[in-house]
Design goal:
By secondary structure, the protein is mainly alpha-helical. Helix content is 86%, strand content 0%. Helix 9 crosses helix 10.
Length: 485
């Protein structure tokens, strides 16, 4: 298990590099696009993206997870998976080309359908490369996948900014992902190396359908739960409100997507490989949960208490309508982030009924809450989503509690350091907000950053915690190397 732990740390380190470089680049790209385009442009694209992403949950059909999860992968499994993923990609792309006018009618927005029809080309691209991408993950080649993802991110950002600069408007948000997906597809096939080969094996297809079917149903439920608020806001409040709401959501989920999802993607193949050793899984789950909490909780607390300065400075006055929604979303994002590893455990252990039940519970809660919150504009929807995410975290934890034998007290004690750090930052920034008389948004934001960083560094240096100790040792080692040079 020691070799696996080292391999996991190595994989996490490489993914950490990617999640430092890509968010910084994508954040800069987002700022540029937000200043070049309008909230309505982003809202129209979000309308088309709703149905695109819903179909993406179906088109994957759990094929990637089947490849990673299966211990003895054979050639028949690979060629059958390639055939299924490619066929589904082409089928869904064709359907959306035909049905896209109905999307425009539903939202009463002529461009929404055109956006969807163009986005649907990604189904063909992703269907062809789903298998090699999954083989990279199964082989734990995180260094290679990180390099490819970083390069694809740069392709997306550069092409989006150039398209917006040359006046393509909202379509700069459409063409750029397609170019990025094409680049990534070619790079993955070269890296594996892999040339798509097609074939059919009934037994392999049945195995994929059995596991992938349950996973797909759960993914669809999860997608509906995560995106039904966009559908409802777009339908009843319009493109501009959806653009503001989507901006608030995208900012609030950055820690979850860039930290929690990344670390869990490293954890998942190791959990599949070592699921018989529940003690190792439990220990790794607790370490992973603590790492996610230490990274995400302080960041989201800071975001909630600095939302107005962040929006005004970064995106400009036209985006101020997103401030309160962003604050509520940041609170919900705390719970959204820490529950991510639970899903990896349920899938690794093949507990698909439990996984589906959890997603169904969340979807029902969210739909009911969002319809109620709609009465209070996008701020009410954001509050509804935050409440549903709190419930989602608890049901996720109790779904894996018996599998790995972790108690509530163990989990809470494991989170103690992150709670203390976040609470200290919360109290300090609340006091600053009350007492500060400075009018400059830039000065206020810089001072808040300094306060939060000082508090975080203080705890790293003084608090008795294994992860903080690891961080101190890494810093010392780096400093020693620099001094030797």
């Amino acid at each position: 298990m020691e070799d696996l732990s080292k391999k996991a740390k190595h994989g996490a380190a490489w993914l950490a590099v990617g999640q430092f470089v890509m968010p910084a680049w994508e954040f800069g790209v987002g700022i540029a696009l937000a200043r070049m385009l309008t909230p309505s442009d982003f809202g129209v694209v979000a309308m088309g993206m709703f149905f695109f992403s819903l179909a993406a949950a179906f088109s994957n059909f759990g094929i990637g997870s089947v490849i990673v999860q299966k211990k003895n992968l054979e050639k028949a499994d690979i060629v059958t998976a390639q055939t299924m993923s490619s066929f589904l990609g082409i089928l869904i792309c064709s359907m959306f080309f035909l049905l896209s006018p109905l999307v425009s009618i539903f939202f009463k927005e002529p461009l929404a359908g055109k956006v969807l029809s163009l986005f649907s080309l990604n189904f063909v691209i992703n269907g062809m490369t789903m298998v090699p991408a999954s083989l990279l993950t199964k082989d734990m080649r995180f260094k290679t996948s990180t390099k490819i993802n970083i390069a694809a991110s740069f392709v997306y950002g550069a092409s989006a900014i150039l398209a917006a600069f040359f006046g393509l408007g909202l379509f700069s948000l459409v063409y750029a992902p397609i170019l990025s997906a094409l680049f990534k597809a070619v790079a993955i096939c070269i890296a594996v190396p892999y040339l798509p080969k097609f074939g059919w094996n009934k037994a392999a297809a049945m195995g994929i359908a059995k596991f992938g079917g349950s996973l797909t149903f759960a993914s669809i439920l999860n997608y509906i739960a995560r995106n039904v608020d966009f559908l409802i806001v777009g339908k009843f409040l319009g493109a501009e409100s959806l653009g503001l709401y989507k901006r608030a959501y995208d900012l609030a989920v950055i820690p979850k997507e860039k930290v929690a999802d990344t670390l869990s993607s490293v954890f998942f193949p190791f959990a599949c490989e070592t699921r018989n050793d529940k003690q190792w899984i439990k220990s790794s789950f607790l370490k992973l949960s603590k790492s996610i909490a230490l990274a995400c909780l302080p960041a989201l607390v800071f975001a909630a208490l600095s939302a107005e300065e962040i929006i005004r400075i970064v995106y400009g006055e036209k985006w101020l309508g997103a401030v309160h929604a962003f604050q509520f979303m940041a609170i919900g994002g705390i719970f959204y982030s820490v529950m991510v590893p639970c899903g990896s455990i349920l899938i690794a252990y093949g507990r698909m009924k439990a996984y589906v039940a959890v997603q169904a519970f969340y979807a029902i809660c969210l739909i009911l809450a969002v319809f109620f919150g709609l009465n209070f504009d996008i701020e009410g929807v954001a509050v509804a989503v935050a409440i549903a995410l709190i419930l989602f975290m608890f049901i996720n934890f109790f779904s894996i509690k018996q599998i790995i034998g972790v108690s509530v007290m163990e989990y809470l004690n494991n989170m103690k350091s992150s709670i203390i750090v976040s609470a200290t930052i919360l109290i300090s920034l609340l006091a600053y907000n009350i007492m500060s008389t400075i009018k400059s948004d830039m000065c206020n934001l810089l001072l808040k950053i300094i306060i939060a960083v000082v508090i975080y560094v203080f705890y790293i240096l003084t608090y008795d915690d294994a992860i903080f100790t690891d961080v101190k040792n890494i810093i010392k080692a780096r400093c020693f190397r620099v001094m030797k040079v």
